[in-house]
Amino acid sequence: MQNLGWSEAIKKVLAEQGEPMRTSEIAQAILDRNLRSKVGATPHTAVASYLSQEPLRSEVEKLDRGVFRYPPAAKEDKPVPSSAAQTPVVALEDTGTADVSEDERGLLNAFGLFWRRAEIDWAPSAPTMLGVQLTGSAAVDFSTQEGVYILYDGSRLVYVGRVTEPRMGKRLREHTRDRLSGRWDRFSWFGVRPVGANGELEDVPDTDLDADLVISTLEALLIEALEPPQNRRQGDGFAELEFIQQIDPNIEKARKKRLLAELSDNL
Fold this sequence. Notes:
Number of helices: 9
Low-confidence stretches: 83-103
CATH topology of the largest domain: GIY-YIG endonuclease
CATH superfamily of the largest domain: GIY-YIG endonuclease
Number of domains: 2
Order of helices and strands: HEHHHEEHHEEEEEHEHH
Distance between the termini: 89 Å
CATH architecture of the largest domain: 3-Layer(aba) Sandwich
Number of strands: 9
Helix content: 25-40%
Structural class: alpha+beta
Radius of gyration: 25 Å
Oligomer: single chain
């Protein structure tokens, strides 16, 4: 086990790799090679943060959003072929907070996809929802998250719900005992509370957006768009906002014209 500083560990991984890497790949390599004795709960965030600051910002070459190379290629050199450098970086885990501003991220600060119901102990009144940013990083308990969640039966979506208080774990526990109990085995969640460097969930960031309103609107949009079979109502307040498509008059005339032509041919 080595105990390099983040900057030294980042440069060592990139130099040994010899080709561009994403921030998530750099962080995972640091963990896999035991280059640091402590990595905390958000090593990917730490890597992205260091790469955005001096001296690394001047020493390490940035090829694309979330993609870096060290040492930098000479100006006359051709770019090193790499899927990491050529593929647009669109996944949240591949960008990091240093590459995505709070305005771009909005209020979405953490999420989990297709977690297994069977891998959580629902017996306690306040069950824990453990997740890791990268393999080998410290676990984070998301049971006090706020946001929107989706329940699945296998791969089939069955229900969309929201939590506007820090009780995601408790709310999901209720679904192991209510009418939905036998109807789901996986779930996804989207949270507004960010993870701090100490691995604890922080308060919802201060923005011009109202968190409760955003959560409620997102839930309503998901219900309207996905039509989960177990949701008994439409999205809140959306009934008067829905507009039914009206056929273009020119298309309607063309259809009538074709119908008359077909009737004429059959006479």
